[in-house]
Amino acid sequence: MKKYSIEDLFSASVIHSMLDEQKGVLVGYSGGADSSALLHIMKEICDERGLYLRALHVHHGIRGDEADRDAEFCRKTCERLGIDFTLEAADIPALARERGQGIEETAREFRYDAFVKAVKSDSRLTCIATAHNADDNAETVIFNLTRGCGTSGLCGIPPMRIISGIPVIRPLLYAAKRDIIGYLNENGTEYIFDSTNADTAYTRNYIRHEIVPRLERVNPSFLDSVRRMTRSLSEDADYLDLAVERFISENVTDGRIDVSLLAKIERAISSRVVCRMFSAVSEKTLERIHVDAVLSLADAKRDGASVSLPGGVRAMIERGCLYFTDEAETEPISFEYTLHEGVNRFEYPDFAVFVSKSGDCRADLQKDNETLQNIYKLSIHTILSSDKIKHMLSVRSRRDGDAYVFGGMTRKLKKLYNDRGYSKEKRCRTPIFCDADGIVWVPEFSVADRVKPEGDGIKIIYYYNGD
Questions:
Q1: Same structural domain for residues 271 and 152?
Q2: 211 — pLDDT class (breaks 50, 70, 90)
Q3: Using alpha carbons only, what angle is made at residue 151 by residues 145 and 154, rounded to the nearest 5 degrees?
C-alpha cells in the first residue's frame, strides 16, 4: 500500500525554498481536501521551524447553509489544532454584478484582496500559502490554451509570485489531487466537499471533469507531462524576463519608452516590455490581442493616439513615447496653433490642415494636397467666407462650454459630440477652427452662420487618421 509522505506532497516547497526567510504563514483555508492537507502539513512544519501560522476562510455568500457549514467546520478545525482563524464574508454574486465580471473572477479577486489585507495588518505574517496542486496547474494550462495564450500562459501557475509586495507560495503545486486525497485518508484527516465543484457550468469544473480525464486516456502521465512542460517553459521565460528587465532599466524612464526603440527589438522582447509596463499600473493580465493592439499603436508613431485596455487602463502615444495611464486620470489633450496658407502639419496630436483660396489650383498646392492624402487616411473639407474671417485663423483643442451658431441655432459641442457618439479620444483630438471672434467650424459639422461663403472663399481641408 502506498505511503504518502509530507516530503512528496511538499516537493515544490523544497525545490523552490518557499519557506526560507519567512516568519509567519497565512493559509487560504476553504475546508476542502487541498487546503485541509495544506493546513495540516503547514501546522507540522511551522511547529518544527517556529513559524507563526494563521488560517483565513472566505465565505462567498453563494451556497447558503452549505457555505455556513464550511465556515463553521474551518473555525472548529483551527480551534482544535490551535491555529488562529479569520473569517471574511462577501456577497460575491452582488459584487460580480457591480463590477460587471464573472463570479469565478470576482471570487478570486476578493480572496486575494482578503489575503493581502490580512498579512499587511499582522506583522507576524510574511507570506500567503494557497493549496493549488498539479491538477489545478494542468487545468490552468488548458484554460489559457483555449484563450490563445503565449509562453507565460503555458507556464501555468507559478510556484511563487508576489502580490502587492507579499510572497504567495504554492507548496502542493507538484502534488496530484489523488495523492493529496490519499494522504488525507491515510492520516484520517477530515475535510469537506464543495458541491459547486461538481457543477460543470463553471469553466474550470468542466475542464476538470470532462477534458482532463480524456487527456489522461491519451497519456496516463498527463499531469506529470504538464508539470515538466511548465517547469521547462518557466526556465525559458525567466531568461527572457531577465533580458526584458535589462532593456527596461536602460530604456524606460518615468514609465515612458521611445516607440522607435520598441520597433528595433525582437517581438519576444517588445511584447514582454509592453506587459511589464502595463503590470506597473494594473494587476490585470493582457491577452495577446491587447499586446498586439499596443504594439500596432507604437508602430504607427502617431502622437495623441491611444487604445483602451483591461482594468480601465489606456495606452497612450505622446511626443514619440508610449506610456500607460488610468483612463479616469487621463488628462485631455491641449493644443492651440495658428494657421497659415498652404500646408500646416502638427505632431501633437498628429493632424494636418491645408488652407488655400477656394479657386486656387496652383500645381504646388495640388502636389501638397496629394502628399497629405498619402499620409492620412481621412480628410474633411469646407469653405469659409474670407471677407468675414476676423484676423487670423487658428485651431485649438476643445474647451468647457464650447458652442457656436449654425443653422440659426446655438449648438453646444458637448451635445453635438454626444449625439454622434464621439469617443473620449476623438473629442480630445478633433481640432476646433477659430478666428478672433470664436469658433468658425468643427469638422463633421457645419460652418458658423457668420462665415458662410459668399463671394471669395477660403478652402480648408483637415487631414487625420482615426475613426
A1: no
A2: very high
A3: 40
